[in-house]
């Protein structure tokens, strides 16, 4: 019984390996992926913004951290919802106890 199984595995492996040699290689054009790159460029609001090295005005790290903490603490804590009850319709748990 072990020999038949091993023979089938070896035959399948041989078919896969020999059949894989018959596949022609995939060639991609030089323009492959150009449409994706064009779409990404079209979605940028200001493409030249990354070239600027101007100082960004705004909050410093401590002020922004305090602001974020105040914002997050402004929401009231609610107790966690209980897990949903198991409801599966009218399943018979013990068929012997059902009156007929």
Helices and strands in order:
Blueprint: H1 2-20, H2 34-42, H3 61-73
How does this structure look, described?
- The chain is built from three helices and no strands.
- The protein has 100 residues and is an all-alpha fold.
- Quote the distance from N terminus to C terminus: 51 Å
Alpha-carbon Rg, integer? 33 Å
Main sheet, how many strands, which sense, barrel? none
Structural class: mainly alpha
Secondary-structure element sequence?
HHH
- Overall mean pLDDT stands at 79
Strand element count: 0
Number of helices: 3
Q: Fraction of residues in helices?
A: 40-55%
The backbone outline, from C-alpha atoms, is flat
Strand content: under 5%
Question: Any low-confidence stretches, pLDDT <50, length ≥5?
Answer: none
Keywords:
100 residues, mainly alpha, 3 helices, single chain, 0% strand
Please outline what is shown here.
By secondary structure, the protein is mainly alpha-helical. The chain is built from three helices and no strands.
């Amino acid at each position: 019984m072990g020999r038949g199984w091993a023979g089938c595995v070896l035959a399948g492996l041989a078919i896969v390996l020999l059949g894989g040699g018959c596949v022609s290689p995939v060639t991609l054009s030089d323009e492959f992926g150009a449409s994706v790159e064009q779409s990404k460029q079209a979605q940028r609001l200001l493409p030249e913004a990354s070239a600027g090295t101007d100082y960004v005005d705004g909050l410093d790290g401590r002020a922004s951290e305090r602001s974020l903490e105040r914002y997050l603490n402004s929401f009231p804590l609610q107790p966690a919802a209980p897990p949903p009850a198991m409801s599966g319709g009218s399943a018979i748990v013990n068929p012997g106890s059902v009156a007929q």
